Amino acid sequence: MRVLVVEDVRRLADDIAEGLRDQGMAVDVAYDGLTGAQKAAVSPYDVVVLDRDLPGVHGDVLCRQIAHAPDPALVLMLTAADSPGERVEGLRLGADDYLPKPFHFPELVLRIRALARRRPSARPRVLRAAGIELDPVQRTATRAGRPLRLSPKEFEVLAALLAAAPAPMSAELLLEKVWDENADPFTRTVSVTVGRLRRKLGLPEAIVTVSGAGYRIADC
Q1: Hey, where are the domains in the chain?
Q2: pLDDT at site 136
Q3: What is the pTM of this model?
Q4: ∠ Cα 74 168 150 (to 5°)
Q5: 2-118, what's its fold?
Q6: CA angle, 138 then 102 then 10, to 5°
Q7: Can you list the positions of beta strands (E) in the chain?
Q8: Within its chain, how far is the Cα of 156 from the centroid?
């Protein structure tokens, strides 16, 4: 899952991003509305966590822009204002959910995951292939009934490959979906993560390399 955090309080924005990355999400950050608009226009985000009172481009304007994009991300609006009128106005602008500040971080995570599941391209509740069962909601994965102990990035890579199956995914696309904009495109991070996944999944081999195309879930 790829998330954009648009928040002008830098420490809060960085804390949110760090916490979401710990949950396995790919997170980009913008500290003003103009930068947020530029990033939202060029990258395919699942969810945008959007502060309402932003410099540069106001959060209300940015929310409308995102909502009217061809393939819009879902918007979780953050604001210090918590009156019913403020919430109604935020939703009217195109926000998909509304969370007043201060908030509990576990609730923010649950709301982001819930929004991601509402996207038309969202994954089914349980992904199954090659004897693997992965539940994105419960954050569990098994193979042949054996629980898999996966890191957050391993979990997201496996989820992306299962969602794409039987089609392959390139290393570049996996890097875009699972890591954030700061990831080095020349890094071996994807191949290293896939290698760890293969070892944890065991035999028969569940992830195969497709020459010139990337990786896919095996037909087994």
Answers
A1: 2-118, 127-217
A2: 84
A3: 0.72
A4: 70
A5: Rossmann fold (3.40.50)
A6: 95
A7: 2-6, 26-30, 47-51, 74-79, 97-100, 127-129, 132-135, 140-143, 146-147, 207-210, 214-217
A8: 9
CATH of domain 127-217: 1.10.10.10
What DSSP designation does 188 have? S
- Residue with tokens 């509305």, as numbered in its chain: 33
pLDDT of 42 strictly over 90: no
Average pLDDT over residues 172-185: 83
Cβ neighbours for 34, distance < 8 A, ≥ 6 positions apart: 56, 57
pLDDT digits (tens, 9 = 90+) for 68-127: 888 889 999 998 766 666 666 656 778 899 899 899 999 999 999 999 888 765 555 789
Helices vs. strands in the chain: H and E counts, helices first: 8, 11
Q: What share of the chain is helix, strand, coil (3-state, %, to 5)?
A: 40, 20, 40
